[in-house]
Each structure stands twice: as C-alpha cells, then as structure tokens.
Amino acid sequence: MVDTPAQSNAGDKIDDLAISGRIRFENVTFGYGDVEEDIVLNSINIHIPEGKTLALVGPSGGGKTTLASLIPRFYEVEQGRITIDEIDIRDFDLGFLRRQIGIIQQDVFIFAGTIGENLAIAKPEASQQELIDALKKAEAWEFVSDLPSGLDTQIGQRGVKLSGGQKQRIALARVFLKNPPILILDEATSALDNKTERYIQRTLETLSVGRTTLVIAHRLSTIEKADQILVLSKDGILEEGNHTQLMNQKGFYYHLRQGEATI
User: Are strands 182-186 and 79-84 parallel, antiparallel or unpaired?
Assistant: First the structure.
C-alpha cells in the first residue's frame, strides 16, 4: 500500500461540469502499509448531501484526516470508490477536481510575497475589488486596510509578519474568492487562542452556507449545528447522527462532549 500508483490525467477526463457537491464513500478502504494492521479506513460508507455539513470526531489515528484527504485525491482509494454528483472522482481531471474543493487546515499555507499575491493563487484573474470583497467576507479587510501598503504588504516567509488569526483569515478569504461547492475544514481553528477561535468560527459558519462541508472537529462545541456527525475510529464508524441524537444515545460522543474533550 505504500507504493501508491502515480495519479494520471490521461484520457478523456471531465473538466467542465457544474458541480453541486453530493459526496459518497462506497465501501472505501485505505491504508499506509502492506499489512492488515496498517489499514486506516476499512469499508467506509458515507453520504454527504449537497449543501450539508458532516463533522468527523474521534480519537487520534482514527482516519479523520486521511478520509478528508481522499476527496481531492491527495491519496488514491485502494478499494471501493468516492463519487461527487454520482461521478467517480477518478473520472475528473485532477486540476478540475481540486478547483471544486476549498481546504482550510490548522497549518495555513502562506508564501513569501504580498497579501494580494497570496490571495490570487485562488483566482489568478481576480480584480482588486474581488480581492477586497473576499477579505471583507473573511472579516480580514479591516486589518489589511490598516497596513501601510494594504494588499501590497509583504508578509514574509510563511506569513511571519502575520498573527495566527490573520493567517487563517487570509486562508478564509482565498476560499471565498475561489467559491468552491465543497469545503474541507481540518481542525482549522485548533492552533488559535479561544477568543480568536470564536471569531474565526463565526466566519467559517458563514463560509459553509450553501456548500457541502466536511469538518474535522477540534472542539466538539463547534459542531453542534452540523447536519450529521460521525464518530470515527480505527474500528470504523462507531456512531452517527446529529448532536441531539448522539447526546441522547449516551455513547462515545456523549462522554466526549460531557468532558468537553479536545481531540
């Protein structure tokens, strides 16, 4: 399983289609090694309807990030398949597929350059007004406009001149600019202090509206409004339902939530 076949875009791949964002995992199995003990996901079946939010919780090593990474084909499914709008993701042009997905992670990718240049990688042809509008939606325009050079401010290697919250807002603005139908949030606020996390969480909720969203939860209190919650472990899906249903079951999720555990 370590020697994953090279990804290919050869042949007639789909690269021009209006994507609504319905996602299905059908008997998906994936592992990082060559033996059964290395399997991370085993026969996973999941359906995320268009425009709905699915949250993944569970112990470390349960495969949450791996599962999310399979959607943009950072890793290739070994058994089973993943579909978007009933089309196998391997039938999409790889670049087209990834343009349909916005990803915000704990470790934000920022390169040496200006704020405007960092935003424009999401949409190279964007006008200055589009950049400003995206920053406003991410509640970032206030701090950017206060900088001496605004959009033209140099932010240093890996955004060293920005705070953690500011870097996350730049990442949020990128996704608003990209405007993809699918959103993946991988512990997007876990490195922030509590006050900054609350502000960013509010923006994330705005960003998720109308998009099919997969959330890997850091604090369980941030996913109470999710349409569906899956408790994922190495043994597979332990529990599923919305917040109220899982609390009423008084199972694994309930005990995590009662302790307000960080996972």
Answer: unpaired
pLDDT band at 11 (very low <50, low <70, confident <90, very high): low
Per-residue model confidence as pLDDT tens digits over 152-189 = 999 988 888 898 889 989 999 999 999 999 999 998 87
Kind plus residue range of the DSSP H or E element containing 117? helix 115-120
Q: Are 55 and 220 in contact (CB under 8 A)?
A: no
Say which CATH number the domain at 158 has: 3.40.50.300
Q: Which residues contact 259 (CB under 8 A, 6 or more apart)?
A: none
Within a domain: residue 174?
yes
Count of domains forming the chain? 1
Q: Please tell me the pTM assigned to this model.
A: 0.89
**DSSP run (H or E) holding 213:** strand 212-216
pLDDT tens, position by position, 182-214? 999 998 877 777 888 888 888 888 899 999 999
Q: Cα-flanking dihedrals φ and ψ of residue 31, to 5°?
A: -150, 165
84 domain-assigned: no
Residues with Cβ within 8 Å of 237's Cβ and at least 6 positions away in sequence, in order, are 44, 46, 230, 231
**Which element (helix H / strand E) includes 206?**
helix 194-208
Range of the domain at 138: 109-179
Q: Which residue has the tokens 């332990």?
A: 238
- Asked if 179 and 137 touch (Cβ cutoff 8 Å), the reply is no
Q: Per-residue pLDDT for 237 more than 60?
A: yes
